Amino acid sequence: MSAGLVIAIGTAVLLMMAIFIIIFVAYYQHKQSQQRLALKEMQERHRQELMAATFHGQEAERRRLAQDLHDDIGTMLSVAKLTLNQLERQLTPETPPSHQARKTRQLLDDTLKNVRRISRDLVPTTLERFGLLASLEELVSNASNDLVDVRLERPETLPPLTSAVEIMIYRIVQELVSNAIKHSGAGSIVIQLFPAQKEIRLNVFDDGRGFDLDEVLQNKQRGLGIRNIESRLSVVDGHVTFDVAPGRGSHIYVQVPLENAKLVPLLT
Fold first, then answer.
1. Which residues have a Cβ under 8 Å from the Cβ of 212 and sit 6 or more positions away?
2. Cα–Cα distance between 79 and 90 in angstroms, integer?
3. Rounded Cα gap, residues 197 and 122, in angstroms
4. CB-CB contact of 240 with 254 (8 Å)
């Protein structure tokens, strides 16, 4: 065998070995990439399941508190009011304690209203009985007053949503409206809710004084509401955009993918 042939065979063997090594390394890197991707997907699913479980627990605790307020404190206040009414009927207008009795009855009336309001905010019964649109109409009606006008623009119907997603959207609207009233001094708030292609879109506009998003997020107390909104949306791969700045009204855009929203389990 000639030297040239030996060199050619040796070169061919080395070339094949090099090709094999390259293929092996590429295959190994591909498998590593697949494993990293699978691990990332598993971690993301775990995070979403954990967030869903957290919000499930929060809603369950809200129900328990609302039930306690309604059944225990509300009942006790109602009994106290009845007792006071009986006492007041035994007093004449000329009797000095009668004025104090009227003041006490008014205080009880105000307390009962507050208990009912807190109970309703914790668990909106309209949402459970009549659905998201009716509960938002009620929220808008309760939030509107002489100082602020809250308006809801919505379709006649929405695509089917799980109760968990309806609660999520309701809580987001509740948070955004509350922030606009308490912190921005808004005189007008517009809520837009509508389906678009494969998602539900929620827009909330106000004419308040606005805010610095970075500054608010650095404040643990004020930024908690915004982080809660982002956390709720992350469960369904939703998204929120804050078009805000100091000195002007706020525009907030929320997107909830319908495909992922259907996978969120019912809260029982």
1. 244, 245, 246
2. 17
3. 32
4. yes
- Residue 89: what residue type? R
Express each pLDDT in 20-52 by its tens digit: 677 767 776 777 677 667 666 666 665 665 566
- Contact assessment for residue 62 and residue 68, using Cβ atoms and an 8 Å cutoff: no
d(CA 189, CA 187): 7
Predicted structure pTM score:
0.61
Closest of 181, 218, 189 to residue 205, by C-alpha: 189
Helices (H), the chain: 3-68, 74-89, 97-122, 125-130, 132-143, 163-182, 213-218, 223-234, 258-261
Q: Which domains does the chain have, with CATH numbers?
A: 1-123 (no CATH), 124-261 (3.30.565.10)
pLDDT digits (tens, 9 = 90+) for 55-79: 665 665 566 666 656 565 666 666 6
**DSSP 8-state assignment for residue 39:** H
